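Changelog-adjacent note: as of this version, every example in the card shows the full chain rather than a window. The one below runs 137 residues end to end.
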Amino acid sequence: MPARKIKVEFFDDAGTKHTITIEGNLTKEKINRVLDYVELMGRLQPTATSADRSYSNRKFERIRDILEEFRGRTFKSTEVQRAYEHRHGEQIPLSTVCTYLSRFADRGVVVRSGSPAEWLYTVKPQGTISWDSVFSR
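Full-length structure tokens:
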């Protein structure tokens, strides 16, 4: 298989240009890490302190916290989107919610059923997952 190459360029809120190029054996994990970096750096305020950028403010963890509300029942990604927007007072694209739910499904946190046209999710019961292992991957 030929080497693959991706290049991501974006400007953060301070106007700094970020360019990331990866060439070679690209995995989903590597691409996800790049996208996490883009999300993290692209949304920083120029005056933000390190406390403002703390790990707990990341969307991944925010969505994880929201999933606790859905434990014990089946839900759709649109329900998570509405809960996120209600709780945090900011909009989040449905595609972002779907991406994170897909990651949680890949990591064994939620069970996904249905079809790509309408995925249904169920949070696994307490004691069957460890959030520490989810964030260490």
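Structural remarks: Residues 57-136 form a domain with the Arc Repressor Mutant, subunit A fold (CATH 1.10.10.10).
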